[in-house]
Amino acid sequence: MKNVLVLGGTGFIGRHVCEKLHRQGWGITVPTRRAINAARVQHLPRVTVLEADVHDPGQLLSLLDGHDAVVNLVAILHGSEDDFERVHVELPLSLAEACAADGVRRVVHVSALGVGLDGASRYQRSKARGEEVLRGAGLDLTILRPGVVFGSGDRFLNLFARLQAVLPLLPLAGAHTRLQPVWVEDVANAVVASLRDRGLPASSVGQTFECTGPDVLTLAELARIAGRYGSQQRPVWALPAALARLQAGVMEWLPGEPLMSRDNLDSLASDNLATQQWPGLTALGIQPTSVHSVAPTYLGQRGGRSQLLDYRHGAGR
Fold first, then answer.
1. DSSP one-letter code for 38
2. Comparing C-alpha atoms, which of 34, 253, 207 is closest to residue 111?
3. SS3 letters across 107-141
4. Strands 178-179 and 217-218
5. Cα–Cα distance measured from residue 186 to residue 191, given in angstroms and rounded to the nearest whole number
6. What is the Cα 222 distance to its own chain's centre?
7. Rounded Cα–Cα distance for residues 200 and 3 (Å)
8. Cα dist. 258→38, 109, 125, 316 in Å?
């Protein structure tokens, strides 16, 4: 049995990755700083959850012992320049150094669609720098770049559904930005396929894959889909740029995790679509799933004001 260390394994994508790796017979170690998060994956017999801080280089090195591969899913959507640097750049650097010291070469790194050193947002630029750090480390590296991820338990379509359950009108920043949403199960399957690296047209080692779904939809269209299949569909008001920036700035000051930040708004300044420069999910043997076939199965199961407040205060993280 091979063993894999999954950084960020208790998160939204991480839980799906752990379940699929478990089914494939991998031994899985998931470090977390909060023991309460263990319940999200501890029910899987081959998963071991350890309380540890992966941002501590010494702890990260000790975690690698006895593992054949690493999956890095750690990321943030909000924060200061220092926060993004610490999570998206310094952690990959520490991981590269720990892998070199321990002899672990196989790494699957989950980045994001649309990243670039000249990106409009801190998120995009820091994600790109993290990729560069890992590429220069001499690892057996696969990089996955998913579009915006949807699925049961997401904070994307579920959020739009819950907002429309309590608001008569949905004011939306970046409403006209086009996206290629990808199902979380397809992203998890891409991680597993990369680690298996068998039965593919070419090895995934040294490759970057753009993980996107088959649908190209504006943010406003996705919000309407969430309302239609979730609570109830409300009118969407596409906010002008100045109002969108004001809204995002105000939301940053509210308690809890922001629903929108100015950096998120910067990321929405341009369409988030596959560039066709890199292979997609089909190169990993995965047929991308449409949002229209999945959203009706999970939206609307939990809605209303209480669930929106749960989100605002970070419940279930």
1. G
2. 207
3. EEEECCCCCCCCCCCHHHHHHHHHHHHHHCCCCEE
4. antiparallel
5. 9
6. 18
7. 22
8. 24, 26, 20, 15
β-bridge partners, 182: 149
Per-residue pLDDT of the chain (317 residues; tens, 9 = 90+): 699 999 999 999 999 999 999 999 999 999 998 877 777 787 888 899 999 999 999 999 999 999 999 999 999 999 999 999 999 999 999 999 999 999 999 999 999 999 999 999 999 999 999 999 999 999 999 999 999 999 998 999 999 999 999 999 999 999 999 999 999 999 999 999 999 987 788 899 999 999 999 999 999 999 999 999 997 899 999 999 999 999 999 999 888 888 899 999 999 999 999 999 999 999 999 999 999 999 999 996 654 444 444 444 444 33
Residue partners of 221: CB distance under 8 A and separation at least 6: none
Nearest residue to 78 via CA among 270, 258, 267: 258
Domains of the chain: 3-151+182-212+273-286 (3.40.50.720)
Task: Identify which of 60, 63, 59, 58 has the alpha carbon closest to the alpha carbon of residue 48.
Answer: 63
Residue indicated by tokens 């199961």: 301
Positive/negative CA dihedral, 167, 173, 175, 181: negative
Residue 180 contacts residue 213 (beta carbons within 8 Å): yes
| CB contact set of 310 (below 8 Å; sequence gap of 6+) | 316
Q: Say if CB 219 and CB 172 are below 8 A apart.
A: yes
pTM for the model stands at 0.92
Do the Cβ atoms of 92 and 101 come closer than 8 Å?
Answer: no
